[in-house]
Specification:
This protein has 170 residues and is mainly α. Among the domains are: 38 residues, no CATH class; 53 residues, no CATH class. The chain is 37% helix and 0% strand. The protein is built from 6 helices and no strands. 0% of the residues are buried.
Length: 170
């Protein structure tokens, strides 16, 4: 009787553990619902000081309520949005960006990386389609690329670099 009860408890615990929400760690296609991160709020409407001197409409031009996330972030962090160059790069960083992009920057970098990442995960997960329990697909796919912080810390310390904020190894 005790063995059966123990087996039942283990099976129930395993079943409940399989129902845990893995969040972003489970790599699988999203559902058919809306993408809540694709929605960007607009700025609030403001009343002009004088309704008789409104600017002429500019078809295809910018609207005062259009979101400007980069400029808003710069201003929220205490910077000046007017310092942003035309491509969204702060004027002080323009030289750095020019040097980094001297060999050209492909316009479809994100699409290419997304495609290569999907192919990589497909190759790494080829024989893992059959499983009894939920697994961490992210950890499974990128396990070889993990960085052990203690090994890196030891390497830096042996090279003579100070690591004062690193916690001691237990």
């Amino acid at each position: 009787m005790r063995t059966a009860l123990t087996g039942f408890v283990i099976a129930a615990a395993t079943t409940l553990a399989g129902c845990a929400d893995q969040g972003l760690r489970v790599i699988r296609p999203p559902g058919s619902g809306p993408d809540e991160f694709a929605i960007s709020p607009v700025k609030p409407l403001t009343e002009p000081q004088d309704f008789s001197t409104l600017p002429a409409p500019t078809p295809g031009g910018r609207n005062l309520t259009d979101p400007t996330p980069q400029a808003d972030a710069v201003e929220a962090l205490g910077g000046r949005a007017s310092a942003l160059a035309g491509n969204g790069v702060p004027a002080g960083d323009a030289a750095l960006v020019n040097v980094a992009s001297r060999y050209g920057v492909p316009a479809n970098t994100r699409a290419v990386l997304a495609k290569e990442d999907a192919e990589f995960r497909k190759r790494r997960g080829r024989f893992t389609n059959i499983r009894l329990f939920r697994v961490d697909r992210y950890e499974q796919a990128y396990a070889r690329q993990d960085i052990d912080p203690w090994v890196v810390q030891d390497r830096f310390r042996k090279a003579g670099a100070e690591t004062p904020t690193s916690p001691p190894d237990n």
